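Researcher: For the record, we're logging two predictions in this thread. I'll number them. Prediction 1 follows.
Model: Prediction 1, sequence and structure:
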Amino acid sequence: MSKPFPPMTGALWVWPPQAAVARPMPKSKIFAHAKPDSALRALFTAQVDSITWAYKLAPETINLPASPSVPEIEIFEITLKIPELNHAVLSCIDRAIPFPILYNLRFEGYTQPVAAYKRFSEVDPSKWVVSDYHEAPWQADGFVRPGLPIALDLQGLYELLLRQHLSVPARAGESLRDQLERMEELAKKQAEERKLTLRLHQEKQFNRKVEINAQLRTIRLAVDSLKN
Protein backbone atom coordinates (compact mmCIF):
# COMPACT_ATOMS: atom_id res chain seq x y z
CA MET A 1 0.00 0.00 0.00
CA SER A 2 1.64 3.20 -1.14
CA LYS A 3 -0.29 5.80 0.85
CA PRO A 4 -0.58 6.10 4.65
CA PHE A 5 -3.97 5.63 6.23
CA PRO A 6 -5.38 7.48 9.24
CA PRO A 7 -5.93 5.58 12.51
CA MET A 8 -9.22 3.75 12.72
CA THR A 9 -11.95 5.26 14.87
CA GLY A 10 -14.42 2.39 14.70
CA ALA A 11 -16.43 0.17 12.36
CA LEU A 12 -14.16 -2.90 12.61
CA TRP A 13 -14.81 -5.47 15.30
CA VAL A 14 -13.85 -8.91 16.49
CA TRP A 15 -16.62 -10.94 14.92
CA PRO A 16 -17.93 -13.83 17.05
CA PRO A 17 -16.30 -17.09 15.88
CA GLN A 18 -19.63 -18.92 16.11
CA ALA A 19 -20.98 -16.52 13.46
CA ALA A 20 -18.31 -17.48 10.90
CA VAL A 21 -19.49 -18.63 7.47
CA ALA A 22 -16.28 -18.28 5.40
CA ARG A 23 -18.04 -19.18 2.17
CA PRO A 24 -16.90 -17.85 -1.22
CA MET A 25 -19.58 -15.84 -3.02
CA PRO A 26 -19.20 -16.38 -6.78
CA LYS A 27 -19.70 -13.30 -8.91
CA SER A 28 -21.89 -15.41 -11.20
CA LYS A 29 -24.37 -15.95 -8.38
CA ILE A 30 -24.60 -12.21 -7.75
CA PHE A 31 -25.00 -11.55 -11.48
CA ALA A 32 -27.81 -14.12 -11.71
CA HIS A 33 -29.85 -12.27 -9.08
CA ALA A 34 -28.92 -8.62 -9.73
CA LYS A 35 -28.58 -8.81 -13.55
CA PRO A 36 -25.94 -6.07 -13.94
CA ASP A 37 -25.22 -4.58 -17.36
CA SER A 38 -21.91 -5.08 -19.16
CA ALA A 39 -20.37 -1.90 -17.73
CA LEU A 40 -21.05 -3.02 -14.16
CA ARG A 41 -19.73 -6.50 -14.88
CA ALA A 42 -16.56 -4.84 -16.16
CA LEU A 43 -16.21 -2.99 -12.84
CA PHE A 44 -16.40 -6.29 -10.97
CA THR A 45 -13.69 -7.70 -13.23
CA ALA A 46 -11.42 -4.67 -12.92
CA GLN A 47 -11.78 -4.01 -9.19
CA VAL A 48 -12.85 -7.20 -7.39
CA ASP A 49 -10.59 -10.17 -6.85
CA SER A 50 -12.92 -12.23 -4.63
CA ILE A 51 -16.01 -11.97 -2.43
CA THR A 52 -16.44 -13.96 0.76
CA TRP A 53 -19.54 -14.32 2.91
CA ALA A 54 -17.52 -14.05 6.10
CA TYR A 55 -20.02 -13.90 8.98
CA LYS A 56 -23.73 -14.13 9.67
CA LEU A 57 -25.08 -12.27 12.69
CA ALA A 58 -28.40 -13.94 13.45
CA PRO A 59 -30.40 -15.28 16.42
CA GLU A 60 -28.87 -18.73 16.00
CA THR A 61 -25.28 -17.42 15.82
CA ILE A 62 -25.10 -14.58 18.36
CA ASN A 63 -28.22 -15.19 20.45
CA LEU A 64 -29.88 -11.83 19.74
CA PRO A 65 -33.54 -11.70 18.69
CA ALA A 66 -34.32 -10.69 15.14
CA SER A 67 -36.69 -7.89 14.21
CA PRO A 68 -38.96 -7.64 11.14
CA SER A 69 -36.64 -5.04 9.62
CA VAL A 70 -33.37 -6.82 10.50
CA PRO A 71 -33.80 -10.62 10.41
CA GLU A 72 -30.00 -11.05 10.19
CA ILE A 73 -26.85 -9.10 9.30
CA GLU A 74 -24.30 -10.34 6.77
CA ILE A 75 -20.59 -9.49 6.81
CA PHE A 76 -18.99 -9.64 3.37
CA GLU A 77 -15.24 -9.42 2.79
CA ILE A 78 -14.21 -8.18 -0.65
CA THR A 79 -10.59 -8.57 -1.70
CA LEU A 80 -9.72 -5.81 -4.15
CA LYS A 81 -7.38 -5.63 -7.10
CA ILE A 82 -6.91 -1.88 -6.57
CA PRO A 83 -7.29 0.23 -3.38
CA GLU A 84 -10.77 1.52 -4.25
CA LEU A 85 -14.18 0.17 -5.15
CA ASN A 86 -16.97 1.81 -7.10
CA HIS A 87 -20.10 1.88 -4.94
CA ALA A 88 -22.10 0.57 -7.90
CA VAL A 89 -20.48 -2.81 -7.19
CA LEU A 90 -21.79 -2.77 -3.62
CA SER A 91 -25.21 -1.69 -4.82
CA CYS A 92 -25.28 -4.67 -7.16
CA ILE A 93 -24.46 -7.04 -4.30
CA ASP A 94 -27.12 -5.44 -2.11
CA ARG A 95 -29.68 -6.01 -4.85
CA ALA A 96 -28.76 -9.68 -4.95
CA ILE A 97 -28.71 -10.34 -1.18
CA PRO A 98 -32.01 -9.68 0.69
CA PHE A 99 -30.45 -8.80 4.05
CA PRO A 100 -28.52 -5.87 5.55
CA ILE A 101 -24.81 -6.18 4.71
CA LEU A 102 -21.65 -4.69 6.23
CA TYR A 103 -18.67 -4.75 3.86
CA ASN A 104 -14.99 -5.11 4.72
CA LEU A 105 -12.85 -4.16 1.73
CA ARG A 106 -9.39 -5.73 1.83
CA PHE A 107 -6.25 -4.64 0.00
CA GLU A 108 -2.59 -5.39 0.74
CA GLY A 109 -2.83 -5.77 4.51
CA TYR A 110 -5.48 -3.09 5.09
CA THR A 111 -9.24 -3.23 5.62
CA GLN A 112 -11.85 -0.55 5.02
CA PRO A 113 -15.41 -0.88 6.39
CA VAL A 114 -18.17 0.33 4.07
CA ALA A 115 -21.93 0.17 4.63
CA ALA A 116 -25.25 1.67 3.62
CA TYR A 117 -28.47 1.75 5.60
CA LYS A 118 -30.65 -0.98 4.12
CA ARG A 119 -34.32 -1.18 5.04
CA PHE A 120 -37.64 -2.39 3.69
CA SER A 121 -39.48 0.05 1.44
CA GLU A 122 -42.44 1.81 3.04
CA VAL A 123 -44.22 1.77 -0.32
CA ASP A 124 -43.53 -1.90 -1.09
CA PRO A 125 -42.47 -3.91 2.00
CA SER A 126 -41.25 -6.73 -0.25
CA LYS A 127 -38.46 -4.52 -1.61
CA TRP A 128 -35.32 -3.13 0.02
CA VAL A 129 -34.19 0.49 -0.03
CA VAL A 130 -30.46 1.21 0.18
CA SER A 131 -29.16 4.64 1.20
CA ASP A 132 -25.79 6.17 0.29
CA TYR A 133 -22.66 4.19 1.13
CA HIS A 134 -20.43 5.43 3.93
CA GLU A 135 -16.75 4.58 4.29
CA ALA A 136 -14.81 4.42 7.53
CA PRO A 137 -11.02 4.89 7.38
CA TRP A 138 -8.69 2.11 6.27
CA GLN A 139 -7.11 0.15 9.12
CA ALA A 140 -3.98 -1.97 9.07
CA ASP A 141 -4.47 -5.67 9.72
CA GLY A 142 -3.31 -6.59 13.20
CA PHE A 143 -4.80 -3.46 14.78
CA VAL A 144 -6.58 -4.42 18.00
CA ARG A 145 -10.33 -4.49 17.42
CA PRO A 146 -13.09 -4.27 20.04
CA GLY A 147 -15.83 -6.84 20.53
CA LEU A 148 -19.34 -6.18 19.30
CA PRO A 149 -21.26 -3.42 21.13
CA ILE A 150 -24.03 -4.44 23.50
CA ALA A 151 -27.52 -4.41 21.99
CA LEU A 152 -30.93 -5.82 22.85
CA ASP A 153 -31.73 -7.12 19.36
CA LEU A 154 -30.37 -7.26 15.82
CA GLN A 155 -32.09 -3.98 14.90
CA GLY A 156 -30.26 -2.17 17.70
CA LEU A 157 -26.98 -3.89 16.86
CA TYR A 158 -27.29 -2.99 13.18
CA GLU A 159 -27.83 0.66 13.99
CA LEU A 160 -24.89 0.73 16.41
CA LEU A 161 -22.58 -0.87 13.86
CA LEU A 162 -23.79 1.32 11.01
CA ARG A 163 -23.36 4.56 12.95
CA GLN A 164 -19.65 3.80 13.32
CA HIS A 165 -19.31 4.21 9.53
CA LEU A 166 -20.71 7.75 9.58
CA SER A 167 -18.37 10.74 9.47
CA VAL A 168 -20.85 13.11 11.13
CA PRO A 169 -21.76 12.23 14.75
CA ALA A 170 -25.36 11.81 15.79
CA ARG A 171 -27.03 14.56 17.76
CA ALA A 172 -28.48 13.75 21.17
CA GLY A 173 -31.57 11.61 20.68
CA GLU A 174 -31.27 11.68 16.88
CA SER A 175 -32.55 8.58 15.09
CA LEU A 176 -30.39 6.84 12.52
CA ARG A 177 -32.70 7.85 9.68
CA ASP A 178 -32.67 11.48 10.79
CA GLN A 179 -28.88 11.40 11.03
CA LEU A 180 -28.59 9.98 7.52
CA GLU A 181 -31.04 12.53 6.10
CA ARG A 182 -29.01 15.32 7.72
CA MET A 183 -25.85 13.90 6.16
CA GLU A 184 -27.50 13.77 2.74
CA GLU A 185 -28.54 17.41 3.08
CA LEU A 186 -25.02 18.28 4.24
CA ALA A 187 -23.55 16.61 1.14
CA LYS A 188 -25.85 18.69 -1.09
CA LYS A 189 -24.87 21.93 0.64
CA GLN A 190 -21.18 21.06 0.43
CA ALA A 191 -21.56 20.42 -3.31
CA GLU A 192 -23.23 23.83 -3.67
CA GLU A 193 -20.38 25.38 -1.69
CA ARG A 194 -17.77 23.86 -4.02
CA LYS A 195 -19.60 25.11 -7.11
CA LEU A 196 -19.94 28.63 -5.69
CA THR A 197 -16.27 28.67 -4.68
CA LEU A 198 -15.28 27.75 -8.23
CA ARG A 199 -17.58 30.43 -9.65
CA LEU A 200 -16.06 32.99 -7.30
CA HIS A 201 -12.54 32.20 -8.49
CA GLN A 202 -13.61 32.45 -12.13
CA GLU A 203 -15.73 35.61 -11.81
CA LYS A 204 -14.12 38.86 -12.97
CA GLN A 205 -16.82 41.41 -12.17
CA PHE A 206 -16.64 42.92 -8.70
CA ASN A 207 -20.41 43.20 -8.17
CA ARG A 208 -20.90 39.54 -9.10
CA LYS A 209 -18.11 38.55 -6.68
CA VAL A 210 -19.97 40.38 -3.90
CA GLU A 211 -23.18 38.48 -4.71
CA ILE A 212 -21.41 35.11 -4.81
CA ASN A 213 -19.63 35.83 -1.53
CA ALA A 214 -22.99 36.55 0.10
CA GLN A 215 -24.36 33.27 -1.21
CA LEU A 216 -21.26 31.48 0.06
CA ARG A 217 -21.69 32.89 3.55
CA THR A 218 -25.28 31.59 3.64
CA ILE A 219 -24.24 28.15 2.38
CA ARG A 220 -21.37 27.92 4.87
CA LEU A 221 -23.67 28.77 7.76
CA ALA A 222 -25.98 25.97 6.64
CA VAL A 223 -23.02 23.55 6.35
CA ASP A 224 -21.84 24.40 9.87
CA SER A 225 -25.36 23.97 11.24
CA LEU A 226 -25.77 20.56 9.60
CA LYS A 227 -22.38 19.38 10.87
CA ASN A 228 -23.03 20.34 14.48
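Researcher: Logged. Prediction 2.
Model: Prediction 2, sequence and structure:
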Amino acid sequence: MDIDTRLFIKSGYRITKDRNLTVARIRIPGGDLQARFLPKIIEVAQKYGRGVMHLSSRQGIEIPFLDINKINEIKKELAKTIYTIENFAGAELKEPEGGYKTVGSRNISACIGDSVCRFANFDTTALAKELEARFFENDYHLKLAIAGCPNDCAKVWVQDIGIIGTTLPEHNEERCIGCETCAKRCRTFCHGSIEMKGRLPMRDPKTCTYCGECVLVCPTMAWARKKTMYRLIIGGRTGKKEVRLARPFIDFIYEKDAIFKVIENTFKFIDRFIDRTLKKEHLGYIIEREGFAKYKEEVLKDVVLNKEAVVYD
Protein backbone atom coordinates (compact mmCIF):
# COMPACT_ATOMS: atom_id res chain seq x y z
CA MET A 1 0.00 0.00 0.00
CA ASP A 2 1.12 3.58 -0.67
CA ILE A 3 2.01 5.43 2.52
CA ASP A 4 3.33 8.93 3.20
CA THR A 5 5.99 7.68 5.61
CA ARG A 6 6.52 11.11 7.17
CA LEU A 7 2.87 11.45 8.20
CA PHE A 8 2.69 7.76 9.09
CA ILE A 9 5.54 8.10 11.60
CA LYS A 10 4.12 11.35 12.98
CA SER A 11 0.83 9.59 13.69
CA GLY A 12 2.59 7.21 16.08
CA TYR A 13 3.61 4.23 13.96
CA ARG A 14 6.98 2.79 12.96
CA ILE A 15 8.33 1.84 9.56
CA THR A 16 9.90 -1.55 10.23
CA LYS A 17 12.31 -3.80 8.35
CA ASP A 18 9.33 -5.87 7.18
CA ARG A 19 7.31 -3.71 4.76
CA ASN A 20 4.13 -5.62 5.66
CA LEU A 21 4.37 -4.95 9.39
CA THR A 22 4.26 -1.87 11.58
CA VAL A 23 4.43 -0.93 15.27
CA ALA A 24 1.86 1.18 17.14
CA ARG A 25 3.43 3.53 19.68
CA ILE A 26 1.25 4.64 22.60
CA ARG A 27 2.28 7.59 24.73
CA ILE A 28 2.12 7.10 28.51
CA PRO A 29 3.00 10.50 30.06
CA GLY A 30 5.16 9.95 33.12
CA GLY A 31 4.85 6.17 32.72
CA ASP A 32 1.65 6.27 34.78
CA LEU A 33 -1.03 4.08 33.15
CA GLN A 34 -4.37 3.07 34.61
CA ALA A 35 -5.10 -0.65 34.34
CA ARG A 36 -8.40 0.02 32.54
CA PHE A 37 -6.49 0.88 29.35
CA LEU A 38 -4.70 -2.47 29.11
CA PRO A 39 -7.53 -4.74 27.84
CA LYS A 40 -7.91 -2.83 24.55
CA ILE A 41 -4.13 -2.71 24.01
CA ILE A 42 -3.94 -6.47 24.63
CA GLU A 43 -6.89 -7.06 22.29
CA VAL A 44 -5.20 -5.15 19.44
CA ALA A 45 -1.92 -7.00 20.02
CA GLN A 46 -3.69 -10.34 19.78
CA LYS A 47 -6.10 -9.47 16.97
CA TYR A 48 -3.74 -7.70 14.58
CA GLY A 49 -0.29 -8.76 15.79
CA ARG A 50 1.38 -11.67 17.54
CA GLY A 51 0.09 -11.00 21.04
CA VAL A 52 3.28 -9.17 21.96
CA MET A 53 3.73 -5.76 23.60
CA HIS A 54 6.98 -3.89 24.15
CA LEU A 55 7.60 -1.48 27.03
CA SER A 56 9.82 1.20 25.51
CA SER A 57 12.77 2.85 27.23
CA ARG A 58 10.71 6.05 27.35
CA GLN A 59 7.90 4.31 29.26
CA GLY A 60 5.52 4.13 26.33
CA ILE A 61 3.84 0.95 25.09
CA GLU A 62 4.57 -0.39 21.62
CA ILE A 63 2.57 -3.06 19.81
CA PRO A 64 4.83 -4.72 17.21
CA PHE A 65 4.13 -7.08 14.29
CA LEU A 66 0.90 -5.35 13.24
CA ASP A 67 -0.44 -5.94 9.73
CA ILE A 68 0.21 -2.64 7.95
CA ASN A 69 -2.56 -3.35 5.45
CA LYS A 70 -5.06 -3.13 8.31
CA ILE A 71 -3.68 0.16 9.62
CA ASN A 72 -6.98 2.05 9.32
CA GLU A 73 -8.77 -0.63 11.36
CA ILE A 74 -6.01 -0.57 13.96
CA LYS A 75 -6.16 3.22 14.29
CA LYS A 76 -9.92 3.08 14.83
CA GLU A 77 -9.50 0.35 17.45
CA LEU A 78 -6.95 2.39 19.38
CA ALA A 79 -8.59 5.80 18.92
CA LYS A 80 -10.55 5.84 22.18
CA THR A 81 -7.60 4.50 24.17
CA ILE A 82 -5.03 7.05 23.03
CA TYR A 83 -7.62 9.85 23.30
CA THR A 84 -8.55 8.91 26.87
CA ILE A 85 -4.92 8.50 28.00
CA GLU A 86 -4.11 11.99 26.68
CA ASN A 87 -7.32 13.40 28.11
CA PHE A 88 -6.48 11.86 31.50
CA ALA A 89 -3.21 13.83 31.35
CA GLY A 90 -5.11 17.01 30.49
CA ALA A 91 -4.10 17.05 26.81
CA GLU A 92 -6.55 17.28 23.94
CA LEU A 93 -6.04 14.85 21.06
CA LYS A 94 -7.97 15.93 17.99
CA GLU A 95 -9.22 13.34 15.49
CA PRO A 96 -7.75 10.32 17.33
CA GLU A 97 -9.05 7.97 14.59
CA GLY A 98 -6.03 9.05 12.54
CA GLY A 99 -3.59 8.48 15.38
CA TYR A 100 -1.55 11.28 16.90
CA LYS A 101 -1.23 14.49 14.92
CA THR A 102 2.48 14.54 15.60
CA VAL A 103 4.85 12.87 18.05
CA GLY A 104 7.89 15.10 17.61
CA SER A 105 8.59 15.40 21.32
CA ARG A 106 9.00 11.91 22.70
CA ASN A 107 6.98 10.49 25.58
CA ILE A 108 7.75 12.41 28.78
CA SER A 109 9.38 9.89 31.10
CA ALA A 110 9.57 10.08 34.87
CA CYS A 111 10.59 8.09 37.91
CA ILE A 112 7.74 6.87 40.09
CA GLY A 113 7.86 9.93 42.36
CA ASP A 114 6.91 10.60 45.96
CA SER A 115 3.57 8.81 45.76
CA VAL A 116 5.63 5.62 46.18
CA CYS A 117 9.34 6.35 46.57
CA ARG A 118 10.64 7.65 49.91
CA PHE A 119 13.64 9.30 48.22
CA ALA A 120 11.56 11.40 45.80
CA ASN A 121 10.94 15.03 46.67
CA PHE A 122 7.76 15.61 44.63
CA ASP A 123 5.06 14.01 42.46
CA THR A 124 6.91 13.41 39.20
CA THR A 125 4.06 11.78 37.27
CA ALA A 126 1.74 14.70 38.06
CA LEU A 127 4.32 17.11 36.63
CA ALA A 128 4.71 14.89 33.53
CA LYS A 129 0.97 15.13 32.92
CA GLU A 130 1.03 18.91 33.33
CA LEU A 131 3.84 19.16 30.78
CA GLU A 132 1.97 16.84 28.40
CA ALA A 133 -1.14 19.00 28.65
CA ARG A 134 0.81 22.18 27.93
CA PHE A 135 3.24 21.12 25.22
CA PHE A 136 1.91 18.10 23.31
CA GLU A 137 1.51 18.07 20.29
CA ASN A 138 4.56 19.56 18.54
CA ASP A 139 6.96 18.70 15.73
CA TYR A 140 10.28 19.04 17.52
CA HIS A 141 12.45 16.04 18.37
CA LEU A 142 12.74 16.79 22.08
CA LYS A 143 13.30 14.34 24.92
CA LEU A 144 12.21 15.41 28.39
CA ALA A 145 12.54 13.43 31.61
CA ILE A 146 11.78 14.02 35.28
CA ALA A 147 13.59 12.69 38.35
CA GLY A 148 12.21 13.01 41.86
CA CYS A 149 15.65 13.30 43.46
CA PRO A 150 19.35 13.50 42.50
CA ASN A 151 19.51 9.68 42.35
CA ASP A 152 18.21 10.30 38.81
CA CYS A 153 16.47 7.00 38.12
CA ALA A 154 14.93 8.73 35.07
CA LYS A 155 18.37 9.39 33.50
CA VAL A 156 17.67 13.08 32.96
CA TRP A 157 21.33 13.91 32.31
CA VAL A 158 21.12 12.47 28.78
CA GLN A 159 17.88 14.27 27.83
CA ASP A 160 17.33 17.50 25.92
CA ILE A 161 15.55 18.87 29.00
CA GLY A 162 15.69 17.36 32.46
CA ILE A 163 13.98 18.27 35.73
CA ILE A 164 15.31 17.06 39.08
CA GLY A 165 13.45 17.46 42.36
CA THR A 166 15.49 18.61 45.34
CA THR A 167 14.65 19.72 48.85
CA LEU A 168 15.89 22.40 51.20
CA PRO A 169 16.68 20.58 54.47
CA GLU A 170 15.99 22.43 57.71
CA HIS A 171 17.59 21.45 61.02
CA ASN A 172 15.92 21.70 64.42
CA GLU A 173 18.59 21.84 67.13
CA GLU A 174 16.13 21.07 69.91
CA ARG A 175 15.28 17.70 68.36
CA CYS A 176 18.90 16.79 67.56
CA ILE A 177 20.66 14.26 69.81
CA GLY A 178 24.03 14.52 68.06
CA CYS A 179 24.02 10.89 66.92
CA GLU A 180 25.91 11.70 63.69
CA THR A 181 23.63 9.48 61.61
CA CYS A 182 23.03 12.23 59.07
CA ALA A 183 26.75 13.01 58.73
CA LYS A 184 27.62 9.34 58.20
CA ARG A 185 24.85 8.92 55.63
CA CYS A 186 25.92 12.01 53.72
CA ARG A 187 29.55 10.90 53.79
CA THR A 188 28.63 7.44 52.45
CA PHE A 189 25.98 8.24 49.84
CA CYS A 190 26.46 11.92 48.99
CA HIS A 191 29.20 14.55 49.08
CA GLY A 192 30.00 14.57 52.77
CA SER A 193 28.36 17.96 53.10
CA ILE A 194 27.45 17.44 56.76
CA GLU A 195 30.11 17.65 59.46
CA MET A 196 29.74 17.61 63.21
CA LYS A 197 30.60 20.85 64.97
CA GLY A 198 30.57 19.94 68.61
CA ARG A 199 27.41 17.91 69.10
CA LEU A 200 25.49 19.47 66.18
CA PRO A 201 25.62 18.67 62.46
CA MET A 202 26.45 21.56 60.13
CA ARG A 203 25.52 21.41 56.42
CA ASP A 204 27.72 23.00 53.75
CA PRO A 205 25.34 24.55 51.15
CA LYS A 206 28.13 24.76 48.56
CA THR A 207 28.57 20.98 48.29
CA CYS A 208 25.08 19.84 49.35
CA THR A 209 23.07 18.09 46.59
CA TYR A 210 19.80 18.88 48.40
CA CYS A 211 18.75 15.24 48.06
CA GLY A 212 17.04 14.83 51.44
CA GLU A 213 18.99 11.76 52.64
CA CYS A 214 19.62 13.49 55.97
CA VAL A 215 15.86 13.90 56.42
CA LEU A 216 15.22 10.22 55.75
CA VAL A 217 17.73 8.80 58.23
CA CYS A 218 17.35 11.16 61.18
CA PRO A 219 15.91 9.08 64.07
CA THR A 220 14.46 12.10 65.89
CA MET A 221 13.19 14.01 62.83
CA ALA A 222 15.58 16.86 63.56
CA TRP A 223 15.98 17.28 59.80
CA ALA A 224 12.88 18.16 57.78
CA ARG A 225 12.07 19.04 54.16
CA LYS A 226 11.51 22.78 54.35
CA LYS A 227 10.72 23.37 50.67
CA THR A 228 10.60 21.44 47.41
CA MET A 229 12.90 22.85 44.73
CA TYR A 230 13.58 22.03 41.10
CA ARG A 231 16.79 21.87 39.08
CA LEU A 232 16.49 22.41 35.33
CA ILE A 233 19.19 20.94 33.08
CA ILE A 234 19.56 21.19 29.30
CA GLY A 235 21.33 19.84 26.26
CA GLY A 236 21.93 16.14 26.95
CA ARG A 237 21.62 13.39 24.35
CA THR A 238 22.68 9.90 23.29
CA GLY A 239 23.05 8.49 19.82
CA LYS A 240 25.46 7.55 17.06
CA LYS A 241 26.78 11.06 16.46
CA GLU A 242 27.75 12.09 19.95
CA VAL A 243 26.88 11.35 23.56
CA ARG A 244 26.73 14.39 25.76
CA LEU A 245 25.67 15.04 29.33
CA ALA A 246 23.24 17.85 29.96
CA ARG A 247 24.36 20.92 31.87
CA PRO A 248 22.70 22.63 34.82
CA PHE A 249 20.79 25.71 33.69
CA ILE A 250 18.74 26.87 36.68
CA ASP A 251 18.92 25.65 40.27
CA PHE A 252 16.66 26.16 43.30
CA ILE A 253 13.47 26.95 41.36
CA TYR A 254 10.51 27.14 43.72
CA GLU A 255 7.60 27.53 41.29
CA LYS A 256 6.64 25.15 38.46
CA ASP A 257 5.31 28.09 36.43
CA ALA A 258 8.90 29.25 35.93
CA ILE A 259 9.78 25.82 34.49
CA PHE A 260 6.76 25.90 32.19
CA LYS A 261 7.75 29.33 30.87
CA VAL A 262 11.36 28.31 30.24
CA ILE A 263 10.21 25.23 28.30
CA GLU A 264 7.67 27.30 26.35
CA ASN A 265 10.43 29.76 25.42
CA THR A 266 12.72 26.85 24.53
CA PHE A 267 10.18 25.67 21.94
CA LYS A 268 10.15 29.20 20.51
CA PHE A 269 13.97 29.19 20.46
CA ILE A 270 13.99 25.87 18.60
CA ASP A 271 11.41 27.18 16.12
CA ARG A 272 13.55 30.23 15.37
CA PHE A 273 16.98 28.64 15.11
CA ILE A 274 16.58 24.96 14.16
CA ASP A 275 18.32 23.85 10.95
CA ARG A 276 15.32 22.96 8.80
CA THR A 277 17.48 21.23 6.20
CA LEU A 278 17.92 18.39 8.70
CA LYS A 279 15.36 15.70 9.47
CA LYS A 280 15.74 16.47 13.17
CA GLU A 281 18.11 18.38 15.42
CA HIS A 282 18.61 18.07 19.16
CA LEU A 283 18.46 21.12 21.41
CA GLY A 284 22.12 20.82 22.47
CA TYR A 285 23.35 21.22 18.90
CA ILE A 286 21.17 24.28 18.33
CA ILE A 287 22.49 25.90 21.51
CA GLU A 288 26.05 25.02 20.51
CA ARG A 289 25.60 26.62 17.09
CA GLU A 290 23.78 29.76 18.22
CA GLY A 291 25.60 30.21 21.52
CA PHE A 292 24.50 29.70 25.10
CA ALA A 293 24.27 33.47 25.69
CA LYS A 294 21.60 33.74 22.99
CA TYR A 295 19.70 30.73 24.35
CA LYS A 296 19.79 32.17 27.86
CA GLU A 297 18.56 35.56 26.69
CA GLU A 298 15.74 34.06 24.63
CA VAL A 299 14.37 31.56 27.14
CA LEU A 300 14.50 33.79 30.23
CA LYS A 301 12.16 36.36 28.67
CA ASP A 302 9.17 36.94 30.96
CA VAL A 303 10.36 34.21 33.35
CA VAL A 304 9.74 35.10 37.00
CA LEU A 305 12.25 33.35 39.27
CA ASN A 306 12.37 33.37 43.05
CA LYS A 307 15.32 35.31 44.46
CA GLU A 308 17.00 32.09 45.62
CA ALA A 309 17.16 30.66 42.08
CA VAL A 310 20.61 30.38 40.49
CA VAL A 311 21.02 30.74 36.72
CA TYR A 312 24.26 29.25 35.42
CA ASP A 313 26.52 30.85 32.84
